[in-house]
Amino acid sequence: MATADKNAYQLMTTAELDATISELERKVDDIAAQGLKLDMARGKPSPEQVALSRPMLDMVTSETVLVDEGMPVDNYGVPDGLPSARRLAAQILGVDPANVVVNGSSSLNLMHDAITNAYVRGIAGCKPWSQQGTVKFLCPSPGYDRHFAVSASFGIENVPVPMRADGPDMDEVVRLVESDPQVKGIWCVPKYANPTGVVYSDEVVRRFATLKPAAPDFRIFWDNAYAVHGFTGEDEPLLNIFDAIGEAGGGNLVYEFGSTAKVTFPSSGIAFITASPIDMVDLRSAFAIERVSPEKFSQLAHALFLKDLDGVKAQMARHAAIVRPRFELVERKLTEGLAELGIASWTHPKGGYFVSFDGPEGSAKKTVGLMKELGVIMTGAGATWPYGVDPHDTNIRIAPTYPSLDELGAALDVFVVVVQLVAARLERASRA
Ligand SMILES: Cc1ncc(COP(=O)(O)O)c(C=O)c1O
After folding, report:
1. Partner of 66 for a Cys bridge, out of 73, 194, 279, 384, CB 3.0 to 4.6 A?
2. Ligand 1 pocket, 224 CB below 6 A?
3. 304-356, pLDDT tens digit by residue?
4. Domains, the chain, ranges and CATH?
């Protein structure tokens, strides 16, 4: 049993610890003999979840009227997206449809586009980022590896910022954004963050809204990917950043993104972006160079299938019924297997796709490596930090949605044994 300052292995005599390690190694040998093949690596909806949206595939047929509120669906034009799809996206994000562009199926693609525009053409009347020396993005960590990969791919310097229980460490964010004109952006997942599940507090949102950046071309990349993805039935409201900016006197500070990737079909959803009216003028002209008009059949199908925010909420309640038992299983297995030992901590999200797990210092790579040897693939250790470098090598992202409940249970049983063994071995090594 752990105490406040020592874990259970630290409290053991060396003989007890050696016996524990031998016992855990026997368990690991038994697991190895099972020849498992399980995947907990990426946050993908399960087959039952994607099946929920199959009826959408019948919404657009050769019989469907291909006009949306007077706009053609079957020809060029309507560069901002169909009116009904823009209204749907605006309701999901809680913003004015006039400031929304629906474009393509991937919000990550829109984030990449927005950076490309700033990098190549420049924004807010400033020189392109490509001509301003090394520019920087703040990366609340643990965070989303694909965000960090986008900024890194431009040669932007990713700067980690600690993630707290109510959002990023805002003292650090304010200090860096307000003092360093090379800081041009910050990656934020404000609701059910990837991977912590954190919902930013009102105070954090207000501090973002009142930032006074040193760089006029600094923007917050507000990726509201999980805006409607609660799974407990009890929504945790997120203060609307544009409302907070309005209260603070306005300004061009935020690009907000969203998609239906985890409402309907990943890779075949609809993606959207919103920003201040002035920023939208700029983004629209950037999009106009990239393409004549967006794909619109999928937009029409989404509008006909989901209809409005109530339709989205009904769909998300169906997802929640599938997702919730998986997160409950994670909580139960980790609590039963690890809580008393005091060797790990993890988050308890009420929405989103992930649980963020922290083991002892120096354990994450070893844990994920041994899991792989035993046939269970997890997100690579370090992936939640810029450049894959977790400074304390503690963090592991658990993605419980894709496997079946049986597979997930089996994977978690292996995980618990592996975490115990790695922690016990680390303690033993520290005594050698
Ligand atoms: C925070 C976050 N943003 C964006 C995405 C990808 O969204 P899309 O498929 O719309 O590009 C994901 C997918 O896991 C995510 O976790």
Report:
1. 73
2. no
3. 999 999 999 999 999 999 999 999 999 999 999 999 999 999 999 999 999 99
4. 14-49+313-431 (3.90.1150.10), 77-307 (3.40.640.10)
